[in-house]
Amino acid sequence: MAEMDVMLDAVCLAARLVLENGGETYRAEETVEHMCRGFGMPKVDVLALPTGLTLTLAAGDGETAHTRLVRVRSRATNLARLDACNTVSRQVAKGQLTPDAALAALRNIQKTPPPKALFSVLFGALSAAFFCVMLGGKLEDFIVSLLCGLMIHGAMPLYNRCRIPAMLGGLLSGFLTAQLALLCNLIYPIHLEPTISGAVLPLLSGLATTNAIRDTIKGDLVSGSARITEAVLTAVLLAVGICIALSMWGGNI
Amino acid sequence: MDWIVPIASCALAAFFVALLLNQPKNTLLHSALIAGAGYAVFMLLGQGTLGYFCATLFIGIACEVCARLMKKIATLFITSALIPLVPGVGLYNTMRHLVQGNFSSAVSCGTDTLMGICAIALGITFSTIIFSNIRRKEKRAA
Fold it and tell me: Is residue A19 packed enough to be buried (19+ CB in 10 Å), middle (13-18) or exposed (0-12)?
């Protein structure tokens, strides 16, 4: 019985790691199925949603069933964790890891520290600046969107501390970006279009939109529509933020 | 030489996005190069809906191939390689037209943006379908 608990813990933790670190729902479901097969428990039913996961595992005796529910509250993208989790689930599927070893490995992954805030700010700002150049920005636009990027990525830990939901954070980011760009435009004329859209592009998470439509086409209707809501709302709130800032400056830019 | 600046900056931008998303170190270069090449395809095909579709199809296939070769999941590569293609300018322009009260330009610009997003989704879906079929054939053969 105890072994069953360890097994369920390991499977649930793996699924949680996949969902919390930017994995798709079908990947969480596949992870659960592969791991259960690796543990010799092929009779499993699993339903993964962007906000949670539930699984039912039929025990070997064919009479008892075990059900677990996992609630996923925070969703970020940390691809290194996703990769490490995938490695563990591959090893389990091949039967190379015992439930205890798998659980220990997964707990280690969970403990890996997130990337340093300073680096995130720097990388976010640099990507914003290069997106601006890609969209046709010149040197002055590069500098302004670098500043915008530094500001919005620097403000993100602040949103977390003040418990501002991620969506509302997007609105604030759009607003601040447009304000700073318009302010810089006053001092030295820049190209607003590439500057603003380049600066907010790393936040847009086009992947959310793409994954949403892909999930829906695949037939995962619930997680597809949940993700469409998320993607559309993120984009709209970002745009509304820009919109408010633009209209404060008269709107005729 | 007009094309080299956007393509190079696209690759660099994708590289920094990959760093931002904490992508494993040994996959950074691959996804940056794929992103640059994908943007080149997009520019060659005239930056329209067809361009979005073909560029995404190319990125999807390249990422799946990389994932197979390195025994990693394709999501690692796709996430950062795809972000430069997202029509951010379209979204910004749609909103700007709305603020200025040019509703007809807002609708046409918004429709273009939506078409672009749908084309990207279709491209990535096709590449996944192609590769999941190959995987099934491999399993049957084994």
Answer: buried
Q: B15, B19, B21: best mutation site toward chain A, by most A Cβ within 10 Å?
A: B21
Q: Does A117 contact B at CB distance below 8 Å?
A: no
User: For residue B141, what pLDDT band results from cuts at 50, 70 and 90?
Assistant: low
Integer Cα distance of A144 and A156 in angstroms: 19
Instruction: Render pLDDT for B90-105 as a digit per residue (tens, 0 to 9).
Output: 877 887 787 778 889 9
Q: How many A/B residue pairs have CB atoms within 8 Å?
A: 154
pLDDT, one tens digit per residue, over A78-103 is: 888 988 998 999 888 888 888 888 88
Closest by Cα among A131, A125, A66, A202 to B8: A131
A49 class by beta-carbon count within 10 Å (0-12 exposed, 13-18 middle, 19+ buried): middle
CA distances to A145, A152, B17 from A125, in Å: 8, 8, 9
What residues of chain B, 59 to 118, have a C-beta less than 8 Å from chain A? 72-73, 75-76, 78-79, 82-86, 88-89, 91-96, 98-100, 117-118
Which amino acid is it at A98?
A: T
pLDDT score, position B20: 87
Place of tokens 């995130």: A120
Cβ within 8 Å, pair B17-A202 = yes
Mean pLDDT of chain A: 85
Instruction: Say if A207 is an interface residue toward chain B (CB within 8 Å).
Output: yes
pLDDT-derived band at B53 (thresholds 50, 70, 90) equals very high
- Asked whether the beta carbons of residue B121 and residue A218 sit closer than 8 angstroms, the reply is no
Q: Which of B16, B19, B79 sits opposite A207 (nearest CB)?
A: B79
By the CB < 8 Å criterion, does A241 face chain B? no
Per-domain boundaries in chain A: 2-111, 117-248
